Amino acid sequence: MTARPAQLKLGIAGLGAIGLAVARRIDAGEVPGISLAAVSVRDEAKARKALAAFRSPPPFASLAGLADAADVVLECLPSALFAEVAEPAIRKGRIFMPLSVGALLDHMPLVDLARQTGARIIVPTGALLGLDAVRATAEGHISSVRMLTRKPPTGLAGAPLLVKQGLSVDGLKEPLRVFAGNAREAIKGFPANVNVAVALSLAGIGPDRTQVEIWADPGVTRNTHTITVTSDASDLTMTIENVPSVENPRTGRITGLSVLAALRRLTAPLVIGS
Questions:
Q1: Per the residue annotation, which of 25, 92, 94, 225 is the catalytic one?
Q2: Euclidean distance between CA atoms 151 and 191, whole angstroms
Q3: Is 225 one of the annotated active-site residues of the chain?
């Protein structure tokens, strides 16, 4: 009889809405083959209260120290801290799972480093759909990829591009287009809002050719993304309406669930989807 593989140890950088939700499910044993080894947080006192009800509260580690404690490092941080957790994990050959995938565009040499060290960078689908189909069409020829995002104005308030332009979305009575351009430009202007656009671009034709529109729409209550892909294999039109997280309206509830699904794939005996 073949022995079962040892459990993969998970380290989580950041215990915000997503990180804490994932940690709870892992601590409860809901993802076979994955155990919670360590977390890294800015406010340890606050984190201790959040972890008090855990069956096995994990120890704290520095961002770099997660790579020493874990086989898989999940990044749930503001994008400014991305490199502090990404580089040590990749240098040590770990599985690195970023949620701030937009920050990866500014650190693409990490992909080459992963190739050298044997690390893997696995980007969860997040608040999107159809990345498996986009990856499949990318094996052929894709002519165009477009993403139209509509969010409640509160989910876009404070975005760097809006602040730079002095554009307020408070009190909108009708939809307002606040951005049109490519995915690379979109993530710079809205780093907390459109990581999905970067994930889409990396699955398809790249951040410079993937076109994005962002609308602040007082008529929607959900974060909505519509993707259209034209290719020689299949034309795709996909729409997802995500319920915003109560803790952070800039992201959808499905994002944390997507992380759990990605973690489950690492140890599952049966994996569905390419």
A1: 225
A2: 14
A3: yes
